[in-house]
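Design a sequence for this backbone.
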């Protein structure tokens, strides 16, 4: 009987000693931060096309009147959910000569909000995210421009516009359908300014 008791005790100690639930390893509970590419978001106008970073969706209905959208598109203009454009905590900074992948943290200050006739992201060729070629009539993203967006609920994303044409052709022509955004972004869901 003693041997059976000792054998049972030995098995119990072995199983308890191998239990993974008592691990003292630190747990990484940081939300995943990944690059998301979105293709062909329409910006035809006359209304706005609203977009939310957290789930990569176009926002419609009553949510367009709330802080549940982050950026909105109408032709070449990009709006944020703050200032005159929405009730959110949104804003933007246009960074030039910046590598999208090397940008590891959002600036802590300097965000502009949409004002009457003056979006936080400036419009016009060479002023914000694009150049316009008057000879070919082509809109091209400015190399090295990264938009840092404060979302409707005050979180951060970095955005790079890839194309303004449907299907994102490498060399768009006047026959390509315009007013369709393809862009990549990184969204930080935990509210920190870190993009890694």
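Sequence:
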């Amino acid at each position: 009987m003693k041997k059976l008791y000792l054998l049972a005790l030995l098995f119990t100690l072995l199983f308890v000693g191998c239990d993974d639930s008592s691990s003292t390893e630190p747990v990484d509970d940081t939300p995943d931060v990944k690059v998301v590419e979105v293709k062909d978001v329409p910006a035809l106008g006359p209304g706005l096309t609203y977009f939310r970073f957290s789930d990569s969706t176009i926002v419609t209905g009553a949510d367009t009147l709330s802080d549940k959208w982050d950026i909105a598109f109408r032709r070449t203009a990009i709006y944020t959910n703050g200032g005159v454009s929405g009730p959110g905590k949104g804003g933007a900074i246009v960074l030039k000569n910046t590598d999208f992948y090397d940008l590891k943290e959002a600036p802590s200050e300097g965000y502009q909000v949409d004002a009457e006739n003056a979006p936080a992201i400036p419009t016009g060729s060479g002023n914000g995210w694009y150049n316009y070629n008057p000879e070919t009539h082509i809109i091209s993203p400015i190399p090295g421009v990264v938009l840092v967006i404060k979302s409707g609920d005050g979180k951060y994303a970095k955005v790079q516009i890839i194309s303004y044409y449907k299907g994102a052709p490498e060399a768009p022509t006047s026959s390509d359908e315009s007013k369709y955004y393809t862009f990549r972004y990184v969204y930080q869901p935990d509210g920190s300014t870190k993009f890694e």
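The first strand starts at residue 35 and ends at 42.
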